[in-house]
Amino acid sequence: MFKKATISVLGLVASVATAGSMGPACTPSNVTVPCITNLWDFGAQALYLRSIYGPAKAVELGALPENKEINSDWNWGYRLEGSYHFNTGNDITINWMHFSTSIDPTEFLGVLTIPAIGLPAIPAPFDLISRNRIDQVNVVMGQYTDLSMRDKMRFYGGLQYANIESTSKNYYITEEIPFIGSNPFTKFDNTDYKGIGPVVGIDYSYYITNSLSLTANGAGSILIGTNKYHAGFVVSPTEAIVEQVFFRKKGVVPSLEAKLGVNYAHNTPIGVANIQAGYQVVNYFNVLQEQLFPNLVGPVRPVDYGVFGPYFGLKLIGNA
To answer: Which positions make up the signal peptide (predicted)?
Structure first.
């Protein structure tokens, strides 16, 4: 479902950081650049997002109900950004996106087996609780161009850093099992990725009036970093790890991002205030790790992670 949403948004084109009035252009040709100027801007966006995993982690294989999707909660995040504009349409921009959410306790019936301590395969219900988060930082340099009086584009490139984490626990309910009733088991399942690499993108805006514009954005990155996976069983009350799996490797992770929105610019005594709203989709491919079954069985394999949802923001542009 997430990949279909990604394709549909990308197909509509690429979000838009271009904001403010349409402004003069300095070259009377088909494609022009803005006049020399020195500006700054600061912006903040409220993000209302939901995270989603690839199919291999979106369901709990080997447990009942079969193919029950694990849905994360919608939650608020934020994006902060600042830019310095100089020369004929150049800018240096830094932005930071942060989002975290959780998955409410989800009931399953699985098979509990821990060969390391001689525990045979026994049916056992469990509650799954999970949290995930993403921090994304971009440092880029851009160039604005005027395709016409109404069509504006910004091409940019730079570096992106991403820190993505997913942690979960299975709380096995064993009170009714005589020989382990007083020593309940918990399984932890943690995976994360930290990487840095090049990012490129295009911002586009179409001005309906001097103040109101439709915006779109498309961006992609290729990150180089480290994947980690750590899972195991913990027995109470000692909290001792009785069996575990640890996996770590270097990984190259591509990502795609798309936005569609609107921007309204209003002049104020201290600069141009831009009110923004829209919808965004972000997907990192093969960025996290997971195992096929909940009992530390099967190979460790990669899985996608993404977020999607609306955003609302305010950006202030003023003279430097």
So the answer is: 1-19
The class level of CATH for 2-319 reads mainly beta
In which residue are the tokens 């779109």 written? 216
If you compute the radius of gyration of the chain from its CA atoms, what whole number of angstroms results?
Answer: 24
- Which pLDDT band, with edges at 50, 70 and 90, does 59 fall under? low
Q: How many C-beta neighbours within 10 Å does residue 115 have?
A: 12
Q: Which among 279, 280, 276 is positioned nearest to 262, based on CA atoms?
A: 276
Residue 291: partners with Cβ closer than 8 Å, 6 or more residues away: 189, 229, 231, 245, 297, 298, 299, 300, 301
- Residue 179 makes CB contacts below 8 A (sequence gap 6+) with none
**Partners of 158 in the beta sheet?**
140, 199
Burial class (CB in 10 A: 0-12, 13-18, 19+), 240: exposed
69-122 pLDDT tens trace: 778 899 999 999 999 999 999 999 999 999 999 887 777 777 777 777 777 777
- CB–CB of 306/287 below 8 Å? no
Compute the distance between CA of residue 54 and CA of residue 62 in angstroms, rounded to an integer: 17
User: Cα–Cα distance between 285 and 288 in angstroms, integer?
Assistant: 8
Torsion-angle region of residue 296: left (phi > 0), alpha (psi -120 to 50) or beta? left
Segment 211-249, tens digit of pLDDT: 999 999 999 999 999 999 999 988 877 788 888 999 999
pTM comes to: 0.85
Residues 278, 295: Cα–Cα separation, whole Å: 42
For the chain, which residues make up each domain, given as ranges?
2-319
